[in-house]
Amino acid sequence: MNDSATRPESVGPSEDGAQLRIEWKDGHVSFYPPRSLRLRCPCAGCVDELTGERMLTPGMVREDVHPLSIQYVGRYALQFHWSDGHSTGIFPFEYLRGLCPCSVCTSAPSGGSENSQ
Ligand SMILES: [Zn+2]
Question: Which CATH class is domain 3-105?
């Protein structure tokens, strides 16, 4: 994966406001349902650091959860402040790009496995 694929050109809400839109420097555009990102939160409170086991289950997250604000963390990640008060999750760009739910990315063989660290 080249560098431009993991660098966002712009980050913001989709036109209808229902999803998070990230346009990448390689021209790819990703749309993320907010709840799916919340469920993928990689922080130590949501994933056991030692075992990698996900402690956050879908039943723990409201259907209407959404980011109240999004901050850049250095040059490598985004930090979301969620409507449920959670804000410790830092999503590296590479991780976000790997989560792109579009048909092109989900069918790409280089996408990596669910459990890769
Ligand atoms: Zn978390």
Answer: alpha beta
pTM: 0.86
For residue 15, the tally of other CB atoms under 10 A from its CB is: 9
pLDDT digits (tens, 9 = 90+) for 77-97: 999 999 999 999 999 999 999
CA 87 / ligand 1 centre spacing (Å) = 7
Tens of pLDDT, residue by residue over 8-27, are 999 999 999 999 999 999 99
| 79 burial level (CB within 10 Å; 0-12, 13-18, 19+) | middle
How is the chain split into domains, by residue range?
Answer: 3-105
Is 48 within 8 Å of 58 (Cβ atoms)?
no
Q: Which residues place a Cβ less than 5 A from the ion ligand 1? A: 41, 43, 45-46, 89
- Which residues face 54 on adjacent strands? 47
Rounded to the nearest whole angstrom, what is the distance from the C-alpha of residue 14 to the centroid of ligand 1? 23
